[in-house]
Amino acid sequence: MRSTHLLYRRIGLLLVSGLWIASASCAMVEKQIDRTAGGPGLPPDTAVLMRAQPTGEPLVTPAPKLSQDPMKITIAEAILLSLENNRTLEVERLNPSIEKTFEDQERAEFDPQTNAEISAGRIKGERLGGPGDETESFTTDAVDGFISLEQFFPTGTTVAVEGSTQGTDSSLYQDDFYVTRFGMTFTQALLRGYGTEVNLARLRQARLDTRLSEFELRGFTEFLVAQVERTYWDYALARRQIEIVEESLKLARQQLNETKELIAVGRLAEAELAAVQAEVAAQEQGLINARSNMEAIHLQLLRLLNPPGPGLWERKVDLVYRPTLPDIKLDDVELHVAVSMRMRPVLNEARLGVLRDDLELVRTKNGLLPLMDLFITLGKSGYATSFGDSVSNIDEDSYDALTGVRFQYPIFNRDAKARHQRAQLSRDQAQKALENLSQLVEVDVRTAYIEVNRAKQQISASSATRKFDEEKLRIETEKFRVGKSTNLLVAQAQRDLLISRIAEVQALANYLKALIDLYQQDGSLLERRGISAPGREPVNLPKN
Question: 216: helix, coil or strand?
Fold first, then answer.
């Protein structure tokens, strides 16, 4: 009983020691790992929070209540609906969570690992007997048990605690024989695999990949918001174009009726009828095209918004917006360029790629070193004719100790050299690609800035053209009524006015879309719309 009690006590001590080592190792790993992939002080920013809000105000309700049919919607509500319901965005939102699993996978390398094995067997055979005998038969029963707790640390250290027992019952001997051992093995990398920098490189790369996926999500969100706004104004423009064409068609038909009346009373020749009839037909054709264009844009808008409820493609949409042009004063172009260098998602993705290549250089440079590991094994064993006594006898003088160095190095080491050279070239390529991308982004911002100014100037120019065309049509109509003009000239004036009216509203829409494009190019669109999304904190490369 005493030996059994002592056995349980020693097994308990072994388990407690193993759990203490495991918890200490976990704490050490937590301390060694920098959880902010972009550097200390930056939040992980892995949660996907996307809600529209006015700048400086609390988050608004994520799902606005809209009338079912027709659906009256403002530009802010359109953005909100797309962020809540757009199916492509739902797909993109999963990418950071997917990438996060690779972090957990890399971190698993530092998790404690338990190994256990138990086996039993019998050997029945023969052996040479004593002098004068030929052979003698024997039967041996053996039971083996093994358990260990092992952990790899970021320092390049591997610690294993193990216990084993072996029992033998042989017909060749009178008594059973048991050997029980408790030991510890310590292995430390001295060259290849030494230090936290190389051993945490893969985990840090995985964290960078997660953050990169967040910037990709941010870039797609900006693209979606910009696309929703452009489609919103395209739909508003298409509806206004239909109204303009309908008004022009009404005027052309009125001109046709007046012409028929004048021909009936003999004031005009019948040849004058062809010009106005052609104009009516042209206006009707234009109205057909305008309605078809509006329906196509309507489908695109519904696809982007994906409003809840049945009958998606049959939903009617009424736009609610201010008819006046927003009074926006642009900042200097250099400020927009500076903002783009910080906030443009594609640039931050490229910077993360450079940081990732830096970590790859650390790994491949370490791979050039020889493998040299120091190992130390210490153990205490007990021997007896019973299992319980073998455990009790561990306190006696028997022990084992082993220390040494393990060395390995390929003669030419071509694989490691090739990997390191490739990592160096990839790092240089990533840096040059970042510089090239920065230049392209600056060109995009400056081009968008020029387009905003051009579109704004076109508004006043198109408005003046429309006023002149209105006056020209009025004069031609008066001249026609007194017999000093022709239907052909009146029809041309009508068509010019139609074109200028459409050009005027087109200039307004182009200006709004040019602003959207500028804000998308400099990476400030989400901030200006009050939308919180991953990837808000820019990536800063370390200064050489």
Answer: helix
